[in-house]
Design brief:
Blueprint: E1 8-11, E2 13-14, E3 17-18, H1 21-38, H2 43-50, H3 54-61, H4 69-78, E4 105-109, E5 113-121, E6 126-133, E7 149-156, E8 159-163, E9 166-170, E10 175-179, E11 184-187, E12 194-201
Antiparallel strand pairs: 1-4, 2-3, 4-5, 5-6, 6-12, 7-10, 7-12, 8-9, 8-11
């Protein structure tokens, strides 16, 4: 459980089969540590960039605690990578224009939301995700911010997007776009499940 709030349960859904939650958390932590050390950064420096405590970052790296999706996005951004890069993905035999469902990574949050990374293109910095929100669920316990821009399309149901000190209620077919540097949080305050397609662009 994330001491700073709700935790996420990342599950790599690659062609080689599902990993256990514990294995995935350990793998993500090891990758965060490797990226941090490769860049010569301390835990304190990452904490200053993300607002995540040093103790939480240490537990995350050691694989003894999971983190909210927002925390993973913030940590990845501080390390100059995408959240997608923290997970294991099967190497395709050849580059294909198609990403099969079985090749897409899935992150489950304890707030009830599911984020499926449908496609990630590291060359352009574009990531497309299909997000499912159960009634009362949210993207994280609090608003987060990171690099890039985001574009969201609600496919079904209703969602509330907290954007700084603003709140925007979206229905099916509505689109929202904003810089990811603005603190944001997405929640489903309705009585029915909601599905949205979210595109994140970070070309750096």
């Amino acid at each position: 459980m994330d001491p700073q709030g709700a935790s996420s349960t990342p599950a790599s859904n690659g062609a080689g089969g599902l990993r256990s939650t514990e294995q995935t958390i350990t793998l993500v932590g090891a990758r965060i540590r490797a990226l941090r050390l490769r860049q010569g950064l301390t835990l304190r420096e990452i904490a200053q960039r993300t607002g995540v405590s040093v103790s939480m970052l240490s537990m995350l790296e050691r694989g003894v605690a999971s983190a909210s999706v927002g925390t993973l996005v913030s940590v990845a951004s501080a390390l100059g990578v995408h959240m997608y890069d923290l997970f294991d993905h099967p190497e395709p035999e050849r580059e294909s224009p198609v990403t099969r469902r079985a090749e897409q990574s899935v992150v489950h949050t304890s707030e009830g939301a599911t984020r499926r990374i449908a496609h990630h293109d590291p060359r352009s910095g574009i990531e497309m995700a299909v997000n499912e929100y159960a009634p009362g669920s949210a993207s994280g316990p609090r608003a987060t911010h990171h690099r890039g821009r985001e574009f969201g399309l609600v496919v079904s149901g209703t969602l509330r997007v907290e954007l700084g000190d603003e709140e925007h209620d979206l229905g099916a077919g509505d689109v929202i776009a904003y810089p990811s540097t603005r603190p944001h949080r997405i929640s489903n305050a309705g009585d029915a499940p909601a599905v949205a397609v979210w595109i994140n662009i970070d070309p750096d």
